[in-house]
């Protein structure tokens, strides 16, 4: 026996399965972003990396648990600033053995150098929704200048937690040898491709310059 829903009821049931994001009021024009001070939203912020492994495959991994702040001025983007920190021990790959090796002394030395950090020094627009963010990256006890290619994705009130959120996608290519991580070069590539999915929540009050979030 077939059970048939009336057309109106069927439409209502179907609507329940439409992703929440489809009805969210998200703006994709960077000029409409709300200015202010933001904190990293760690649950939806992640840093992925990839290296060429022995010339055969592009191997990927992931960092999570980021913290930090963003001072955002859409009307004068060059005055914006970013400071982000990531726990090195959060590194993860599809291989448990490799993950443990990466945390060890021959690679990232997470016990000795527990955090990787990026602090911006300049922001330069390259398009309406794109910018080059240059700053100092500190990892493995060494600080080196790096540049992020940043693209604005969207902004609006998160329908789940009701917080105003802004999101960016960023990429960069760094050399791990610049940070003293030279294991298996050149068999595992010196160049590391980074991709950052960054979510930031707007704060009601300005953050202290002595914030404990870093």
TrEMBL record:
InterPro entries: Lipid/polyisoprenoid-bd_YceI, TTHA0802/YceI-like_sf. The lineage of its organism: Bacteria, Pseudomonadati, Pseudomonadota, Alphaproteobacteria, Acetobacterales. PANTHER family: PROTEIN YCEI (PTHR34406:SF1). This is Polyisoprenoid-binding protein. Keywords: Signal. It comes from Bombella mellum. Residues 1-24 form the signal peptide. The keyword Signal applies. Transmembrane segments: none annotated.
């Amino acid at each position: 026996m077939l059970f048939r829903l009336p057309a109106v009821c069927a439409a209502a049931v179907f609507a329940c399965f439409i992703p929440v994001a489809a009805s969210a009021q998200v703006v994709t024009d960077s000029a409409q972003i709300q200015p202010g001070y933001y904190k990293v939203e760690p649950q939806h912020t992640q840093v992925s990396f990839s290296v060429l492994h022995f010339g055969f495959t592009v191997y990927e991994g992931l960092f999570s648990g980021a913290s930090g702040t963003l001072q955002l001025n859409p009307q004068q983007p060059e005055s914006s600033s970013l400071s982000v920190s990531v726990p090195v021990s959060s590194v993860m790959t599809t291989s448990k053995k490799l993950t443990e090796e990466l945390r060890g002394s021959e690679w990232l030395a997470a016990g000795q150098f527990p955090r990787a950090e990026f602090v911006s020094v300049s922001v330069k627009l390259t398009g309406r929704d794109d910018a080059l963010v240059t700053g100092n990256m500190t990892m493995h006890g060494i600080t080196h200048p790096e540049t992020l290619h940043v693209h604005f994705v969207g902004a609006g009130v998160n329908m789940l937690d009701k917080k105003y959120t802004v999101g960016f996608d960023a990429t960069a290519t760094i050399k791990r040898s610049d940070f003293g991580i030279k294991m298996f070069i050149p068999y595992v590539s010196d160049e590391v491709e980074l991709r950052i999915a960054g979510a930031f929540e707007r704060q009601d009050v300005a953050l202290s310059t002595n914030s404990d979030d870093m």
